[in-house]
């Protein structure tokens, strides 16, 4: 038995009578009457444990907790469990991590314990604010809808976000990043230590937004800090690449529809139209973090942290809105003369938080003119209205490899004489260097040709994160009708010299989208794509295949190999690269000979899929036996569910779909997963459709 609470945003009122509003802060006295064989936890330390009898004479335990600090109702919390814990003290703050007894005994929460204290200290030192509670409990629940929740003094997590198996060597599991990188259809990597993120949220508990319309002040700021902290604890991580890949790029893909809301909406609009739960989305978290990153970039981190410290000190134990933050930043800007802004902090930042969407900058390098418009799909008829949103845009740029002073575009278009290029093909310009701004860039043909040429001669002349951005931008511009696909492909010619997986991943996501794998093979573009891509993929493929064959442990510290090698290998096999198919067959056969053998985790999904695809019913039946093993983890089970749909013989797929309907072989929630896996395969497409119609 287990009881735990999740009261954000508006569920405190279902537990006890209260004015359930974030601005109505109070202190709380909590007392819990519970079964004696369980322990009760709440925000504050227990100050008294006594016994009482009920009218039937049964004995109960009464746990009384110390009075809480002044806080919002949604942060009150309690857990009643029979868990065990590990503990250590950091600067007088007792940290306990609670989990199922066997998980604690096996050391699964030791890693979380080791990093929690240092993260608290890092934040205290950075922001010059001390953590106000005497204890912090982190509890790992077997199942928890929200992923995690930052209740003050009693943080609650899903087990997968807090547990790290000592036998599991992968950095991806340790990577402190609080992001969940989740792929299509529950293919999850790196849910580990999302708890990182929640440690960054105590300053949202200290200073809470006035109301939910400014939720991004809590979540966006915390999302930004989680990345600073991640690289503090794991210095090998490349902050800008991870931030662009996990935060900026995914939200740019979402924030470009007409109906998408702005970051900060008026209270009236939200009260009138939204469920509050809708506010807990990627606009709040990722766009909030992206514009915080941009703000810190043009202010300098030093000034930004100084302003934040002053904001936290003034509003501790009370509430604030975004204007309060702008005021504190303005005070810091006014007190120095190194950083000059083209307008007030409020004018600049409101253009990003109060308008929806984001701009695309169009360059004409013959004249040096840059113009801005909202980035919308030109292929969509509804988007023909002209939107006259303008933003005040910081432009970091480089010319021929050397960084230039920051420029500002504060109207719809403006001429920058410094940006006119000469006739020389070696004279090129790159904007939004290191993703310092939340926007896309549409270069003119002259500059794109020069950049394509530069990439073919010397790809490293452009920083990796800018190569990622450049390719991500041109494909997005193609998709939305700003440029032709040929223009985008010009920038991929150099790829044989690209050794960064994070850049390859964005290319493959655009050229081989996961949802098209089954249909793309039917078109005449497939052999052309195959020839074009394989020629360029060979160097990076062979580089990593060498590690897989000889020394896979050497990739333990390579974060991007752990996240993206799978996509590279899957694409190589899908394109029919013989070495990839052979490697998959070899490793799968090795596993069949010795079920104790572990296929390297980085490409396990691909190997299992092609092991089954290239084999007969013998290989399929082995996957089925392994799936049936009680001790395989959920992740392994999911890999095998997918692998069994890779069979190339129709009767095997049909039998698999029949198995999927059986209550004895699978739990009922697997039926739809099996159908979805089969439908994404080239021969499975038709079979799944026939099966669904027959068994409707």
Core attributes:
696 residues, alpha+beta, Neutral Protease, domain 2, Immunoglobulin-like, Zincin-like fold, 3 domains, 5-stranded mixed sheet, 4-stranded mixed sheet, 44% helix, M1_APN-typ, metal-binding
* Mean pLDDT across all amino acids: 87
Shape: globular
- CATH topology value of the largest domain: Neutral Protease, domain 2
Count of helical regions? 26
Strand order of the largest sheet: 7-8-9-11-10
**β-strand amount:** 5-15%
Number of domains: 3
Assign the CATH superfamily of the largest domain: Neutral Protease Domain 2
Q: What class would the helix/strand composition place it in?
A: alpha+beta
Our measurement of the CA-to-CA distance between the termini, rounded to an integer number of angstroms, reads: 38 Å
In CATH terms, what is the architecture of the largest domain?
Orthogonal Bundle
The CATH top-level class label of the largest domain? Mainly Alpha
Work out the number of β strands. 24
Whole-angstrom Rg: 27 Å
**Unreliable stretches covering 5 or more consecutive residues:** 176-196
Kindly state the percentage of residues in helix.
Answer: 40-55%
Largest sheet: 5 strands, mixed
Domain Aminopeptidase N-like N-terminal: 2-75
Membrane topology: Single-pass type II membrane protein
Domain ERAP1-like C-terminal: 428-696
Domain Peptidase M1 membrane alanine aminopeptidase: 111-352
């Amino acid at each position: 038995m287990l009881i735990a609470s999740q009261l954000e945003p508006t569920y405190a009122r279902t537990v006890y009578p209260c004015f359930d509003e974030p601005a109505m802060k109070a202190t709380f006295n909590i007392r819990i009457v519970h079964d004696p064989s369980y322990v009760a936890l709440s925000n504050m330390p227990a100050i008294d444990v006594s016994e009482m009898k009920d009218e039937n004479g049964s004995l109960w335990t009464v746990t009384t907790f110390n009075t809480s600090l002044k806080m919002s109702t949604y942060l009150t919390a309690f857990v009643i469990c029979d868990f065990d814990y590990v503990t250590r003290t950091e600067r007088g703050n007792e940290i306990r991590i609670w989990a199922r007894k066997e998980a604690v005994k096996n050391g699964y929460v030791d890693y979380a314990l080791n990093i929690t204290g240092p993260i608290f200290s890092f934040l205290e030192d950075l922001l010059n604010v001390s953590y106000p509670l005497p204890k912090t409990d982190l509890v790992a629940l077997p199942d928890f809808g929200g992923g995690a929740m930052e209740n003050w003094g009693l943080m609650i997590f899903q087990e997968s976000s807090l547990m790290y198996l000592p036998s599991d060597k992968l950095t991806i599991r340790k990577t402190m990043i609080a992001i969940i990188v989740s792929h299509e259809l529950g293919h999850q990597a790196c849910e580990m230590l999302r708890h990182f993120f929640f440690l960054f949220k105590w300053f949202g508990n200290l200073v809470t937004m006035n109301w939910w319309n400014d939720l991004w002040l809590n979540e966006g700021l915390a999302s930004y800090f989680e990345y600073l902290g991640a690289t503090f604890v794991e210095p090998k991580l490349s902050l800008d690449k991870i931030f662009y890949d996990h935060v900026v790029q995914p939200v740019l893909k979402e924030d470009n529809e007409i109906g998408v809301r702005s970051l900060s909406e008026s209270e009236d609009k939200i009260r009138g139209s939204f469920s509050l739960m809708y506010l807990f989305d990627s606009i709040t978290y990722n766009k909030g973090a992206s514009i915080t990153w941009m703000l810190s970039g043009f202010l300098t981190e030093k000034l930004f942290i100084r302003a934040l410290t002053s904001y936290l000190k003034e509003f501790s134990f009370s509430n604030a809105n975004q204007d309060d933050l702008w005021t504190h930043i303005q005070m810091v800007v006014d007190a120095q003369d190194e950083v000059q802004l083209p307008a007030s902090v409020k004018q600049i930042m409101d253009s990003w938080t109060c308008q929806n969407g984001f701009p695309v900058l169009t360059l004409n390098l013959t004249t040096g003119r840059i113009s801005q418009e909202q980035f919308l799909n030109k292929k969509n008829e509804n988007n023909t209205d002209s939107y006259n949103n303008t933003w005040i845009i910081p432009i970091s740029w480089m010319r021929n490899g050397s960084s230039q002073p920051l420029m500002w575009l504060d109207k719809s278009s403006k001429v920058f004489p410094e940006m006119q290029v000469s006739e020389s093909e070696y004279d090129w310009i790159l904007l939004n260097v290191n993703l310092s701004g939340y926007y896309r860039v549409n270069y003119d043909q002259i500059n794109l040709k020069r950049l394509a040429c530069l990439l073919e001669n010397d790809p490293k002349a452009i920083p990796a994160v800018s190569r990622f951005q450049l390719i991500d931008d041109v494909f997005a511009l193609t998709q939305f009708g700003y440029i032709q696909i040929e223009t985008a492909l010009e920038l991929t010619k150099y790829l044989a010299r690209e050794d960064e997986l994070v850049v390859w991943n964005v290319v493959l996501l655009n050229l081989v989208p996961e949802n098209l794998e089954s249909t793309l093979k039917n078109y005449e573009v497939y052999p052309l794509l195959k020839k074009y891509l394989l020629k360029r993929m060979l160097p990076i493929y062979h580089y990593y295949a060498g590690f897989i064959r000889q020394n896979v442990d050497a990739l333990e510290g390579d974060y991007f190999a752990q996240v993206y090698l799978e996509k590279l290998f899957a694409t190589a096999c899908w394109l029919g690269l013989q070495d990839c198919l052979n490697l998959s067959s070899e490793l799968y056969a090795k596993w069949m000979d010795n079920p104790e053998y572990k296929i390297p985790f980085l490409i396990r999904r691909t190997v299992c899929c092609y092991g089954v695809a290239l084999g007969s019913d013998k290989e399929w039946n082995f996957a089925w036996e392994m799936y049936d093993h009680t001790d395989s983890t959920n992740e392994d089970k999911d890999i095998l569910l997918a692998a069994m749909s890779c069979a190339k013989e129709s009767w095997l797929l049909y039998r698999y779909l029949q198995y999927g309907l059986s209550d004895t072989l699978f739990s009922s929630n697997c039926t739809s997963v099996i159908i979805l896996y089969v439908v994404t395969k080239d021969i499975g497409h038709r079979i799944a459709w026939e099966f669904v119609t027959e068994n409707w």
